[in-house]
Write a structure and sequence with these properties.
Structural class: alpha/beta
Strand content: 5-15%
Number of strands: 11
Radius of gyration: 20 Å
Number of helices: 13
Helix content: 40-55%
Strand order of the largest sheet: 3-2-1-4-11-10-5-6-9-7-8
Oligomer: single chain
Length: 344
């Protein structure tokens, strides 16, 4: 590794200049997280750095290659994709994930980005940054692109497989904060994912959450209307902006949507036959519009700091987008807006 700054608290002239220009602390990037780490992560970080974003790479300096002038925060341990999240975070205190979260907690970084073990990323952020006062459980929020323009914010997308009705109300308020600060929606419409539009449809969790969402003074105080139950087909509808559900259902819905998109593209190419070459450019545009890699990853909401979680298979382009999302979220003060809405 040539020219890299390795220190307990990374400092360099180039970083200081970028922080001053950008107006925020650097983004801590978990260089060791992801299926193709560290090479792909470093490449994505390099793209963001070249665009002017202040960054700290966190990981094993000897394995990062030539990172030139990008500062490095040394971390000797790695939490693998298949490691048990909780025990790994507690035992591997010098892992790149834990050090990234600590950098945010201690003010060296304004946000953390990781394409590594999702459970460990959540645990690191929760244990090191702490929960925002009034939040029972953090949730993963994913923006679902849609042709009508601004995306649908869906949460929880996998942090909490089992939920209590009260948590879904908090998820709704957190989703409102993200929709406002990140996507400019003044009064985002909130829907509850169910198997039918009628309030009597759904399991016990959904029915109880529906009643709470209708009567919640905290949600009412946000000015964001609750539009009732929505179905899976409404995730890309222009009629709803924030969709709340438990993490198990949300993750299944997200993966189903991604798989359906890929399958439809393949089916259309197959049916197009000899005309596939003509159809392919239009299909490519549709895929690019809805490609999860272009959304920049998911936000972990409810922790006292910005944490962006990317797919383990993220490309360098996706990593760069995740860093962009982290930067924009810091500048928008989404965490501060969320804290002001979710009051004890």
């Amino acid at each position: 590794m040539s020219g890299a700054a390795v220190a307990t608290a990374p400092e360099s002239e180039a970083l200081s200049e970028r922080v001053a220009a950008a107006g925020h602390a650097p983004i801590a990037v978990d260089a060791m997280g992801g299926d193709d780490a560290p090479s792909v992560v470093v490449e994505g970080a390099r793209r963001a750095w070249d665009d002017g974003t202040p960054i700290i790479l966190v990981g094993r300096p000897g394995e990062l290659g030539d990172v030139a002038d990008i500062p490095v925060l040394a971390a000797s341990e790695v939490i693998a994709m298949d490691d048990d999240p909780g025990p790994s975070v507690r035992r591997r205190k010098d892992s790149s994930l834990v050090r990234s979260a600590e950098a945010v907690r201690d003010g060296w970084a304004g946000a953390m980005v990781s394409a590594g073990n999702t459970g460990a990323a959540m645990a690191s952020a929760l244990l090191r940054m702490g929960r925002i006062k009034g939040v029972s459980r953090p949730a993963i929020a994913i923006p679902i692109p849609k042709p009508s323009g601004r995306p649908t914010v869906m949460l929880d997308a996998g942090a909490n497989a089992e939920c209590q009705p009260e948590w879904l109300v908090q998820f709704a308020i957190m989703g409102v904060a993200l929709a406002r600060t990140r996507f400019g929606m003044a009064k985002p419409r909130v829907g509850l994912l169910s198997i039918g539009e009628e309030s009597v449809k759904g399991n016990g969790l959904v029915k109880s959450a529906h009643a709470l969402l209708e009567s919640s003074p905290l949600l009412g105080a946000t000015g964001a209307p609750f539009v009732g139950n929505v179905e899976g087909r409404d995730l890309m509808s222009p009629d709803v902006d924030v969709v709340v559900t438990d993490g198990f259902t949300g993750n299944v819905a997200l993966k189903t949507l991604e798989g359906a998109l890929s399958g439809i593209v393949g089916l259309i190419e197959q049916l197009a036959g000899d005309d596939a070459d003509q159809a392919r450019p239009l299909l490519r545009r549709a895929v690019d519009e809805l490609d999860p890699e272009n959304t920049g990853g998911a936000m972990l909401l409810g922790v006292n700091g910005v944490c962006v979680i990317s797919h383990g298979s993220s490309s360098a382009w996706a990593i760069a987008n995740a860093i962009r999302v982290a930067r924009e979220t810091v500048l928008a003060d989404t965490v501060g807006a969320l804290a002001s809405l979710v009051r004890p």
